[in-house]
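Can anyone check this?
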Amino acid sequence: MLSEKVKLIAHRGFNRYETENTCAAFVAAGNRSHFGIETDIHVTADGEFVVIHDDRTGRVAGDDLCVEESCLETLRGIRLLDKDGKKGRKDLVMPVLSDYISICGRYGKTAVLELKNHFIPEDIDRVIGVIRSMGHLDKTVFISFDLPNMICLREKLPGAKLQYLTKEYGDDLEETLRRYSLDLDIKYTALTKERVDRLHSLGIEVNVWTVDDEQAAERMLEYGVDYITSNCLE
């Protein structure tokens, strides 16, 4: 099995069968052999942490609202679309951070938590506080495309697992990772075996996204990556 050769991460939960970033998708991942479950959080207009990938709700809900300009009560009142594109299931609502962490804890999964957009330091403190209060901080990997988020997290959590998200292998990437003691979470098409070997020689772990093709997954195994993030592989 793939999961025996690499740490497999369920992208937005196991959304092969369940709507992405829902408790149902997280439970589906929990019941499988994944090492971790990935999700995304935004800060709502009233300062709560809601689980959703996009800046707007239209793709997953039909009703199109700006997440960060809406309050949690409004967002939680929206039913999300099922895999068939229809509404009806009462359980398909946007989770909050504590819902996600609770499921990761219940099934013994590592939380791979993406901070979407830029978080102010006070909000990062509150995210850490929620996870710490639930006893799951040592089993949480933080990821973000926003480098200031990563720098702030490193200052607050010197020993935490942090993976910098990027689509490209830029000229200054290795120096950035070394300077802030970050691991890498990169689009798999940007990698070569030589780059993986180079990163490993620097003590940097490598996660790749989003690998749904078995041949691509086998290639990543040959490269020696440490994690594979996928929508459907197991």
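Reply from J.R.: I decoded it. The domain at 2-230 is CATH 3.20.20.190 (TIM Barrel).
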